[in-house]
Amino acid sequence: MNGGFIVTDSVTTPRHVLRPQGDFQPASLPRRLAAISYDILLCLALQMITTFLYKLISMMIVGEARLRELSESGSLDGDPLLSCLLLLVTFAFFARFWTRGGQTLGMQAWGIRVQNADGTRISLTQALLRFAVAVASWLCFGLGFIWSLFDTDRRTWHDRYSRSRLVRVPGQR
After folding, report:
1. Quick one: which of 81, 88, 24, 31 has its CA closest to 58?
2. Burial label, 26 (beta-carbon count in 10 A; 0-12, 13-18, 19+)
3. Rg of the Cα atoms in the chain
4. Four-point Cα dihedral 164, 45, 40, 95, nearest 10
5. How is the chain split into domains, by residue range?
6. DSSP annotation string for 38-101
7. Can you give the pLDDT of all 173 residues of the chain as single tens digits?
């Protein structure tokens, strides 16, 4: 490794090594869940703002009276466009933090970080895989998270599928 770059087969590939570096212990399930609880509050706030802006733009397009009429008739219940937008905004929240410094605000508060095995930050593709499999894990009543209790490396389904790991960063909380 040389100044943030990993040299392999005479080709230098830019890889962003996260700081601090080291061989860190895997994050425990309670610590993961604490960070998730914190991040859920942030995501809910972000989703409320997104919904407000969506409704505001909708009102500018169709008018206040028509929007009220649609709302009262139940036509806007389960709006697929809004649902997709909220899912996209939630993914963008996690992807932005995970692919930059490896930590959401909740992860920073609880001293954990997502990274590759070599200590580099994950890619956008890995973030997408992590997010999709984590959602699937929750839909299976959290089974993918519970998996970490029995896994020798304490990895969840989304850790394994995205080839990333969640580690406890020393010196944080």
Report:
1. 81
2. buried
3. 20
4. -10
5. 20-168
6. HHHHHHHHHHHHHHHHHHHHHHHHH-HHHHHHHHHHTTTTT-HHHHHHHHHHHHHHHHHHHHHT
7. 445 544 444 444 457 888 888 789 999 999 999 999 999 999 999 999 999 999 899 888 888 888 788 778 877 778 899 999 999 999 999 999 999 999 999 999 999 999 999 999 999 999 999 999 999 999 999 999 999 999 999 999 999 999 999 999 987 65
What H or E segment, with its residue span, contains residue 14? strand 11-14
Q: Any idea which residue has 């963008």 for tokens?
A: 92
Q: Measure the N-to-C terminal CA separation of the chain; round to a whole number of Å.
A: 29
Considering the entire predicted model, what is its pTM?
Answer: 0.84
Residue 86: count other Cβ atoms within 10 Å of its Cβ. 18
Helices and strands (H, E) in the chain, number of each type: 7, 4
Amino acid identity, position 97: F
